[in-house]
Amino acid sequence: MADVFVSYASADRDVAFRIVGYLEEQGIRCWVAPRDVGPGVEYGEAIIDAIGEARALVLVLSDQSNESQFVRKEVERAVSKTKPVLPVRIREVTPSGALEFYISSAQWVDAWKSPMEQHLLPLVAAIKAMGAPGSAPVRSVAPPLATPRAGARHGVSIGLALVAVAALGAAAALWFARAPAPAQAPEAEQRSVPAAAEPSSAELAEAAISAQEAPLPADAIENVEAATEAAAAAARSAPPAPAPAPAVTQVAPVPAGPSRSDVAFFTGTWCQPYNGLTIVYEVIRTGADTVLTRVDHPQAAPWDVPSRIVPVAGGFEMQPVDEPVAADNTARFEIVDDSMMKLVFANGAVEDGSILRMRCDGRKD
Q1: Which residue intervals define the domain TIR in the entry (predicted)?
Q2: Model's pTM, two decimal places?
Q3: Fewest C-beta in 10 Å: which of 13, 91, 267, 299?
Q4: CA-wise closest residue to 193 among 158, 242, 153, 146
């Protein structure tokens, strides 16, 4: 079963398949026509079945898809089957007509800027969250974040609680340290020794005779021939020399990455979708159980937040390091997989898990 059905206008085929390729690189299974229409299957029937089996429909939105009756029908069938519709705008357009009716309240992804793949991060997060057990609908808009007052060095005030939660929540990711390519031991040099040609008895006899200053008697020649034949027979019956032992390649063991209960799991860079932009969190380990998070918000100057990382069942808690721990200054995150976490508790209240953090390279645009 596919994770998503991809709907697009035929004029946008190249861009649609580029989106499909990126999603499939992220481990998301896509159904897209005509690639996935089986031989001998009626085209319309295949589309209806694929929409029914997919978790969601990804709509490639452009001027052409706005006017396509086939795209409109596919979206209508997805809505009728209560499938989420995730529009991806590849042009700066708004849906018109029936499309506006069906997707006016849907979460949008704007991907017309280059590089397009970088702006598909919220789409990947939304689709992966749908596949997580007990997941809630994903919202890409995080709560408004206030900039902390100048000179604040420790903690976060109650008025900035949401900022602290966002920073603490992303205080977490390690691009696993990759071991260098294992060094290979040089192979033992194998030297081939050409086998000497076996001389004939006549050649040996002739060499022996020519080495003497005076000719040998006939019986001496006969003795030489007999000795030569005996030596040749002994050489033929001797066992062959053993072949050189093959070289043994030494392979260095590859170290395993940090476990999900290790604070090292959280060091590195995390990204959070925010109003079509991205909040970036760079996390540096400062102690056995403490980290410092640099929050790079697209609408505020960067700031630092210290926190303590405490492993809990299925994830971690982010606690303050310079004030007493309480429910309203603690955030809890549940690990979805090695590249994603979701917020499940903050500000003393249970969250729906729709705020996600994903591993990234630190870029915002």
Answers
A1: 1-130
A2: 0.44
A3: 299
A4: 242
